[in-house]
Amino acid sequence: MTQHSPDETGPRRSVREPFFYHPPFHGAGNPSTDEQGTAPPSFALRADVGGPYAFSSPDTPGMPTPSAYTAWDFMPSGWTRVEDEKRQQELRSTIRIEPTPGAPFIAVPPRRYAAPAGFEAVTQLEHARLGVVTPQMKRVAEREGHLTPEQVRAEVAAGRMIIPANRVHLSYKLDPICIGRAGRTKINANLGASPVSSNVNEEIEKLNWAVRWGASTAMDLSTGGNLNKCREAIIRASTVPIGTVPIYSMIIGRRLEDLTHEIILAEIENQARQGVDYMTVHAGLLREHLPFVKDRLIGIVSRGGSLLAKWMLDHDRQNPMYELWDEICDILRRYDVAFSIGDGLRPGGLADATDEAQLRELETLGELTERAWARGVQVMIEGPGHIPFDQIEYNMKIARRLCHGAPFYVLGPLVTDVFPGYDHITSCIGATAAAYHGAAMLCYVTPKEHLGLPKKDDVKQGCIAYKIAAHAADVALGIPGARDWDDDLTRARAALNWEKHFELSFDPETARALHDEDLDVDTDFCAMCGHDWCAVRISKEIQAFASGKDEAYAPGDPKVSAALTGEQKRILEERGVLSPEEIHRLASKTKEAMSVESDEATERRSDEGKARAGSSSSAGGADAEPPSKPACHSDYVPEPEEARRVQEQHME
Ligand code: SF4
Q1: pLDDT tens-digit map of 200-251
Q2: Global pTM?
Q3: How far is the CA of 502 from the centre of ligand 1 (A)?
C-alpha cells in the first residue's frame, strides 16, 4: 500500500507495513492425508465429530450458535438411560482421540439407553440409541473413510446423521449412505415423469445416468404417467436411496379439495411399503403462517407447500400433515423411512429470502423434528431455495440451532435470479457456500430449472455442478483425505501425464475430447499455451522443482492419442468447432494409423496443416492421410527446427 499526498512533489513514499504470515487458523487439519504440497491447514473450525460443529466453518459474529439439544433429549417414553461403566469404557476404547497432531478431535459421548421390555428396534436411530452398530453403519464408515462405525452410530443416535435405508429397499440393491455434516457432502438428483413427458424406462435410464454422474440419492418427483409402477421400478433398480413427495400421488385423479386424512395415510403407507427411503412431508407450513406470504414477490414456490396452503384455505383447517404427524411418524418408523421435512415456504426469489414466513416455518420444522425423534424416526430438514450470497451462512446456522443439528438438505440455493438457463451455475455457487456453512446434502439444480423438464444432458450438467460444490466444500472444511484426489490430479498435471490426467478427471471423456480438439498428441505441452510458453514444461526443466518428476506419474514417450470414443465424438460434434471431416479423422484412427509415420506422410500432413491455416474448413477429410507417430517439439525432440515445424503443424 502506498500513499501520496496531493501537495507532495517528491518521489512516492511507501508506507507498506511489514507483512506477517499469520493465516486465520481455527484448528482444522490439512484435508490431504499426506499433507502434500505447501498449502497450510484448512481455515475451517477444528473437527468436532461427536459434537455439534462436526466439520464447520468458523461462525461469523452474530451467527446463531448450535442448539444445546440433540436427539438424546427427545427420547420415546419408557426408555431409560443405562449407566454401564464397562460398556462406556468399551465405547471409549473405539474412539480415536487426536490420533496424530492436526487430525480431527473426536469426542463421541458414549451414551446408551435401554428400551422398555418387548420393544423391537427397527430404525437406524433406535439401534444407535441402544448402542448397536448395524451393518448399514459399518458400510457407511467403510464408504466415508474418515469415520469409524462407532462414530457413525453416535452421530445417528444424536440425530445429526441419517442413514436413509428402508428395510424393503435394503432387500433389493440399496448400498447405504449417510447424510450428516460429519460425513462428506452428498448430492441429490431429481427425476420423474411429468404429465407431458412420461416413460418408466426413460426414468430408469435417467436414474442410472444420475448415479453415473455422482448422485448420492435420487428423488422420484413424478407427476404424470403410472406413478406407482414408475416408483416401484425405480426403487427396485436403484443402488442409491430414493426419496419422494407423497402428496403428488395423493392428488392424481382427484380434486385437491377431496384430499382426506385417510387418503394421506394410505398413500404414505403404500410408498413406505414399496421401499421409499425418505419422504418429503410439508407439515411445517401452518395456517397461521399464510398471512406472512401475502407481500412476497413470488408467494409460495414449493409444489407441496402451495397445494397444502390451498387445501387449508379451502377447508378452513390446519395443515393435515401437521395434524397427522404422529400417525405419519408411526408409519415411517415401521419401514425405517426417514423424514425430509419439507420447507413449503422456502423463498422463490432473492426478494423473499430469510423472511418471516420462512423462519416461522423453520421453527415449526424444529418442533416436528423433536416429535419424530421421540417416535424413533430419522429426520433431515429441507432448506431454501433462492438466497443472496451474504445470507447463506445465517440460513444454515439458524437451521442448525432450531432443528438441533438434524442434517440440512438444501435446494441450491440460487444466489441470483437473472440467469435462467444457467441456474446450475447460479445455484452451485450458493450450494458450495451452503455446504461449507453446514448443509449436509445439496439438491441439484439443472440448466432447465424454472424452464422445463430436465433431459439427459441437463441431469449430467446438474450433477457435475453439484459434485463440484460438494467436493469444494469438503476440501474447505478440512475433511480428512478430501483433497487426496486433487493432489493426485495435480501430480499428473505437473508430470504432463495426460493419460493419468484424464483418468483422474471426474469426466474423462469430456477432458480428453477437449484436449484432442486442438492437439491429438499427448506430449509435454497442450494447445493452450503451446510448447514455448508451457510453464509446466519449463518448470519440469528447473531442477529445483521436484513436481512433475514423480516416477509414479511419469508420462512416457509422447504419443498420438487413441481414436475418439463414441462419447468423445459426440462431445466434439455438439461443440461444432471442428469440421465433420476433422472429427471423422480423430474418430477413425486405427492401430496402423498410429504407427511410425513415414517422412512422406509427415510432409503431407505438414502441407495439410499449412492449408488448414489458410482455410479452417478444408483440413483433413475422410481421405486425408491419418496421423501417425508424432514428432512434437518436446523434451524428447531436441532438434528445435523440427520441433517448431511439428508444433506449427499441430497447432495452426
Ligand atoms: S501449455 Fe499451458 S495449459 Fe497446457 S499444460 Fe502447459 S502450461 Fe498448462
Answers
A1: 888 899 999 999 999 999 999 988 888 999 999 999 999 999 999 999 999 9
A2: 0.87
A3: 15
* Interval between CA 533 and ligand 1 midpoint (Å): 8
Residues 536, 583, single domain; the answer is yes
User: Do 106 and 255 reside in the same domain of the chain?
Assistant: no
Set of cell numbers at residue 26: 481455527
Atom of ligand 1 at shortest distance to CA of 535? Answer: 7
Residue 599 within a domain? yes
The domain total for the chain is 3
Q: Both 470 and 585 in a single domain?
A: no
Cell 500432413 found at? 605
Q: Are residues 370 and 517 in the same domain?
A: no
Is 451 a pocket residue for ligand 1 (Cβ < 6 Å)? no
Pocket test for ligand 1, best of 493, 500, 521, 526 (most atoms within 8 A of CB): 526
Same domain, 512 and 397: no
For helices 200-212 and 456-476, the axis angle rounded to 10 degrees is: 30
pLDDT digits (tens, 9 = 90+) for 87-145: 666 655 554 444 343 444 444 456 778 999 999 999 999 999 999 999 999 999 999 99
Q: What whole-number distance in Å separates Cα of residue 25 and Cα of residue 31? A: 14
Among 525, 538, 545, 553, residue to substitute to test ligand 1 (most atoms within 8 Å of Cβ): 525
Domain C-terminal end among 109, 138, 158: 158
Nearest C-alpha neighbor of 416 from the set 406, 408, 404, 424: 424
Q: Which of the given ranges, 88-92, 446-450, 520-524, 618-622, has the highest pLDDT on average? A: 446-450
CATH of the domain at 187: 3.20.20.540
Q: Please, which residues have CB within 8 angstroms of residue 415's CB and are 6 or more apart in sequence?
A: 350, 387, 388, 389, 392, 426, 427, 429, 430, 433
| Residue 266 placed within a domain | yes
Ligand 1, atom 6, lies closest to the CA of 534
154 and 165 housed in the same domain: no
From 476, 498, 516, give the residue that closes a domain: 476
pLDDT of 602-651, one tens digit each? 344 344 433 333 333 333 333 334 344 344 444 444 566 665 665 666 55
pLDDT for position 112: 79
User: Cell digits for 381?
Assistant: 430438514
Nearest CA to ligand 1 atom 3: 528
Give the domain range for residue 137.
Answer: 48-158
